[in-house]
Amino acid sequence: MKSKRLLCLFLFMFVVYSTWGYVEAAPICITLNTIQKCQAGNFFGEITQCCPPAAYTKGPVVDFIPKRDRHPGPLRVRKALQCLSGDELSSYSEKLWKAYELMQALPQDDPRSFYQQNAMHCAYGSGAFVQDGTGNLTIDIHFNWYFSPWHRMFLYFHERILQSLLDDPTFTLHFWNFDNSFDAEKANRNKEGCFRVGHFFPELYSDPSKSTFHANRSVRPFTANLPADLSILNRSETPLRFVSEAVPRNKEVMHRSMQPGKSPLDFHGWEFKYGQPQNLNISGGGSLEFLPHNSIHRWIGGSTSLTTHAPEDPIFYVFHSNLERLWDVWQRLGGGRKDPSSPDWLDAEFLFYDENAVLRRVKVKDSLVMKDFGYTYERVFDESWLFFDNSTLTPVKPSN
Ligand SMILES: [Cu+2]
């Protein structure tokens, strides 16, 4: 661990004192220096001011190793929102709404506040952070291979803050199972899990009187019986109006996005290393980020379609929990699906604020095993896209 810290320090010094202007590729490391030197961001022309509050940039920084540090006790289960019912639905709704009320009531300059949750994502996503010692090379966690690990860590600390505000370490952020377009309840009556269609916008996030509501959305999430459209990005702003149209296309998008690919980068996105300029090409995103993820952002619309504002809508956190679940599913499918093995990815480090507003440092290599973070996901009907009947695509089977 110490040697990696030294590696980051060495790289910083190397660039500062280098007279050749040539930088060896290495992992991106966000340090206290990075946070302290945060600047106005620029997201495709939108000038952003989303740096962490100055009073919280002095440190200390505490390492967080999920496998070692996670909460004791059984794994918490993130459940599919479409299957919550009865008492479980009532008690979960009350807690969820209360948690966001409390988070939204925190002062804007508290790193745990709802305002700062968006700001952190914005800082990491609009070039507000500059790679240490490079002068002007900015950082982004979209359109490249940091997408999945960074968002997993971000959600994890977001959930820890919600738990702390509720004073309930068992509180769990559930997920919007937007990829499931099939009703498989009858066929799976005796199996444990959720087999209901999941592609409609979750009702828990649709009530204007509740803290999980967000008015700045397009009409699509508010339109009854309109399924999420996972290929909207590839066509136009007009979503598929009927379930019969959306189902086959969603299935195809999901199947393709979850393929092994020719290299791990097909799933994870383009490499992005220390000393390289930030990539602003949307095609740099891996198959999960590029199509289902970007399509859901656009389909919800409003502020959710903007990187700099998307986490202002609480739905952000439950559709992203489904994306990180899908990373876990992809890993477990096997068949050549493997995360990158490059140290330039594995040794990258990011900083987040925890429930005590303390900066925590997590490495990509410590974020690869979901269960290390202390939770798992309810079984859902991934078979809805797993066995795609199309001769041009290779059918895949789950390994467990
Ligand atoms: Cu993001």
TrEMBL record:
This is Tyrosinase copper-binding domain-containing protein. It comes from Marchantia polymorpha (Common liverwort). GO terms for molecular function: catechol oxidase activity; metal ion binding. Residues 1-25 form the signal peptide. Residues 112-332 form the Tyrosinase copper-binding domain. InterPro entries: Di-copper_centre_dom_sf, Polyphenol_oxidase_cen, Tyrosinase/Hemocyanin, Tyrosinase_Cu-bd. Transmembrane segments: none annotated. Its cofactor is Cu(2+). Belongs to the tyrosinase family. Residues 340-386 form the Polyphenol oxidase central domain. Keywords: Copper, Metal-binding, Oxidoreductase, Signal. Gene3D superfamilies: Di-copper center containing domain from catechol oxidase (1.10.1280.10).
